[in-house]
Amino acid sequence: MSEMLRLLSALWRLIVGAVTDALVWLRKPGSKLKVVCAVLSFGCLVSGLTAWEREQKIRDLSAQVIKVRADWTADAARLQADVYTRDQRLAEVATALRAEAEKLKALKAESAAALKSLAGKIEASEKEASTWRGRYEQRPDTCKAALELLDSACPALKGY
Known about the structure:
The protein is mainly α. The chain has helices at residues 2-27, 32-137, 141-153.
């Protein structure tokens, strides 16, 4: 442990000594090399900070791109599910409408048959009524007289 402390102490003295020597050297006036080194070190510092800032922006933008892609994928999946659900509903509605159309065709055919039957019955009853009316109009005089007697005997039943 003591050897470790000596090693760390020696390293510390080396670093502090190097920094102190550099500061002493930089304090001496008149060296063009110092100016060039200072300008270059300042340029390196500025370009390093600029590169670090751009890297941070790139990381932020990359994270945003990843988030947008994930959101887009989730939205696309949700929309696809919505389309699938809508298509299923439309298919169910189409099936129900086809079934209703078949029912309507059957009811229409049944209604047409009933109307045809009813028309036949109406025609037959009109024919029968005209036949009866013709026979009623041609009734004998004795029948007419009997009906007139019935009308006078029962005035409440008059008009048949």
